[in-house]
Amino acid sequence: MLNAFDGALLKAGIGNTNLIKMSSIVPPKCRLIEPVKLPYGALVPVAYASLSSSLPGEHIAAAVAVAFPVNAELPGVIMEYSGKEPLTIIENRVREMAEHALTMRGESLREIKSIGIEYTVNKIAAVFAGAVLWTNDEA
């Protein structure tokens, strides 16, 4: 199972880093950038959902959603979710959670971004979806 999770991290482009699981606050003025090559062994803050399974035929999915407030001076929120349902259900649920978290903070939604993955298990498998926070002065 751990090798399946490691494989999912490699496929996501963060398998050679050290993940620091963070809670779900996006600093103000953050922006989405294209993936960058992260330094080997870097300490990488990430909010993520994952799920592993060894049941052949089982369907697994994971997704994250980021909700940005209208006021860019305020923080956004990240929500993550995984389950044994189709990705459309998982992704809709995580988007609703992110929007609700912003509403709980008394903020209006400017934009929501989400990403997810689904897989049907053959032998052993893992799915991973994450939002990495990274300072990139070149981006």
Structural summary, described in words:
This protein is of the alpha+beta class. It has one domain: Pyruvoyl-Dependent Histidine Decarboxylase, subunit B (Pyruvoyl-Dependent Histidine Decarboxylase, Chain B), CATH 3.50.20.10. 21% of the residues lie in helices and 40% in strands. The protein has 2 helices and 7 strands, in the order αβββββαββ. The protein has helices at residues 2-12, 87-104; strands at residues 18-21, 25-26, 43-53, 59-69, 76-83, 109-120, 125-132. The chain has a 4-stranded antiparallel sheet, with helices on one face. A 3-stranded mixed sheet has the order 1-3-7, covered by helices on one side. A hairpin with a 6-residue loop joins strand 4 (59-69) and strand 5 (76-83). The termini are far apart.
List keywords for this structure.
4-stranded antiparallel β-sheet; Pyruvoyl-Dependent Histidine Decarboxylase, Chain B; 139 residues; 2 helices; flat; 3-stranded mixed β-sheet; single chain; alpha+beta
Summarize the structure.
By secondary structure, this protein is α+β, with helices and mostly antiparallel strands.
| Terminal residue distance | 35 Å
Mean residue pLDDT? 94
Amount of helix: 10-25%
CATH architecture: 3-Layer(bba) Sandwich
Map the helices and strands.
Elements: H1 2-12, E1 18-21, E2 25-26, E3 43-53, E4 59-69, E5 76-83, H2 87-104, E6 109-120, E7 125-132
Parallel strand pairs: 1-3
Antiparallel strand pairs: 2-5, 3-7, 4-5, 4-6
